[in-house]
Structure formats: structure tokens, C-alpha cells
Amino acid sequence: MLILGIDTSCDDTSAAVVEDGGRIVSNIVSGQSDIHMKYGGIVPELASRRHIEMIVPVVEEALEKAGLPLTGLSAVAVCHGPGLIGSLLIGCSFAKALCYSAGIPLVAVNHLEGHILSPFLDARPPEFPFLSLIVSGGHTSLFVAEAAGRYREIGRTRDDAAGEAYDKVSKLLGLGYPGGPIIDRLAGDGDPASIDFPRAYLPGTLDFSFSGLKTAVLNFLRTQSGSAARGAAALPPATVSDVAASFQKAVVDVLVRKTEWAIKKMGIRSVAISGGVAANSELRRRMKEMAGDRGAEIFIPAVPLCTDNAAMIAAAGRHHLTEGDIAGPDLNPRAYLPL
Questions:
Q1: What confidence tens digit (pLDDT) does each residue in 183-226 have?
Q2: Do domains 2-117+305-322 and 126-300 have the same CATH topology?
Q3: What gap in Å lies between CA 330 and CA 7, rounded to an integer?
Q4: CA 68, CA 32: separation in Å to the nearest integer?
Q5: What CATH number should be reported for the domain whose range is 2-117+305-322?
Q6: What percent of the chain lies above the pLDDT cut of 70?
Q7: What is the pTM of this model?
Q8: Architecture field, domain 126-300
Q9: b vs e for 51-63, b when ≥16 Cβ sit within 10 Å of the residue's Cβ?
Q10: Burial state string for 91-103 with b = 16 or more CB within 10 A and e = fewer than 16
Q11: CB pairs under 8 A, 24+ apart, for 205-208?
Q12: Which residues are 180's β-sheet partners?
């Protein structure tokens, strides 16, 4: 079963061919960081325009690398939400036209389901049931994955996603976009205990909150420089690294503690972590350390599979195709699409 996956949910144009839901034959990702960097975040209209430019060459490259004609595909799986509506429109419109012209089945995949099933693209996937922590620029949620197609949300952010907090703090510090890799790198040279930023543990729930942490960083910069607008330029390099390290520790502390609580509450000792923030070196290290202490197993995809990619969409598409869940030409993307 060979499925072509297409993902244009945000600012990456991606196409991939996956065999039997687990073996990546090709996975092409065209990023847009060079476009959005000067704005300190994603500009939706610019993202949509670049998707229009890149969707055809990216799909062609994925098929060429896989050595497949269109007729060799079992189906096309497309992400239809959640995400930026303009970006989603490009992928969905292209996938529908492709399937109509070539007579190929079309399946619609929720972006969150793609993240949940992304560990199945690794050599050693988890077994159901397992806990799934999705932590990215747009989402921070905990799910119980009971089976393919059966997911139960047990916790979510009440305000900002963790990845969004990384980007906003990076912007406050004048460090650029995307903020996650930059802060992760700088944190290695800083003292994580130098600044006591708050942690919103929200006792009694498995929910998250990161807006207060962003405000705390903003207030700290104001007290240090008199103006948050001056960002890192007003601070000594060592202080910038300390802010990065202290901020990152606050985020990781909450993510690890909430996952630990979920293990205890649900009695499930297999945990998958996915989404762009799952590429963070400190989070990966701390989660593995916590799992060892709790006798749990952690499953984290390879770094290229943590960020948005079409391989995870194709992997999730296999389940829908097997179940006969075929989308029609009336498929429309949805910016808000709960799982």
C-alpha cells in the first residue's frame, strides 16, 4: 500500500510516499523560514503564496524519488486541518484535483492524528494504548491513543502553545525565527537556575498554560533594560543565554511534570512525544530521564519527523484507507478541527 501524503498546514510544503503506513519511501519538505524570519513569525498570506509556488515541484520530487508514477499510488492523503486556512486550501485543492484527474482515492487526515502516529515511522513504534504529547507551535495537548482512529484528549493548553512561547520569547530577545532551535542552542551556554520564571502547573488538571511565562520574560527584560523593545541588544551575551536557559527549563519542567502525572493517572507506561518542540534537546533528555525513573518507555521520532511533514500524514492515511474512509470532491479544509 503506497500512499502519497501532502501537508500544507502551516509554512512547510511537504509531500511524501509511505509504504504500508510505516516505511518512508520519500519525504520532501520545502521550508519558508527565509521568508518569515524578518517578521519574527509566520505571515499567513506569504505562506499561502509560497505553497502555490512549491506544491507542484515538491509533489513531483516526492514521486520521482520514490520511482513511482501516479498510477502506482494506492491513495493520496491530505491534511485538511487544523492549520492556516489559506495554506490548507492549497494542499486540499491540489490533492482533490490530482485524485480527480488520475482516478485515485483521496483520504482526509487531521494534522494532530498525523503527529500522534508519527512514531510509527520509526523502526520501533509504540503499542496501543499509549500516551501522546503533541507539543508544537500551534498545539500543546495530551491524548490517550487507544487504537488507530481512537484518540481521547486528556489535557490541552488553555492559552498559548509551547512552541508559540518559544517564538515569542525569541522575538522579545531579538533572536529571530524560528525561536525553538535558537533558544535551545543558547540555553546550552546559560544557567537555567539564574532566573526563577514561573511554572503554571494547574494542579488537579493535565492542562497547560504558557502565557504567564511569556509575560514574566517580558517583565524581566523591562526591569533589566528599561524597554523590552531593545531585546537582547540591551543585555550582556551571558544574560541572554541565562534568560534562554531559564525560560527553557520552565517550559520543560511543566511538560515533563504533566506527562509524569498523566502516566500515574492513566496507568499507561508508553509515551509518544511529537511536534516541533519534540526536537528540543533538553526536552528529549529530560523525558527519557523521567521515563527511566518511572519505568516507562518514551517514543520520540527522529528530529525531521517531529516538525510538520507529509510522511506522518501518509502514515495516518493508511488507517483511513483501510477503513474505507474516502473523502469526496466536496472536502473542505478547516482551520479549527478538533481530533
A1: 999 999 999 999 999 999 999 999 999 999 999 999 999 888 66
A2: yes
A3: 18
A4: 27
A5: 3.30.420.40
A6: 96
A7: 0.93
A8: 2-Layer Sandwich (3.30)
A9: bbebbeebbeebb
A10: bbbbbbebbeeee
A11: 205/155, 206/142, 206/154, 206/155, 206/258, 206/261, 206/262, 206/265, 207/155, 207/156, 207/157, 207/158, 208/140, 208/155, 208/156, 208/157, 208/158, 208/162, 208/254, 208/255, 208/258
A12: none
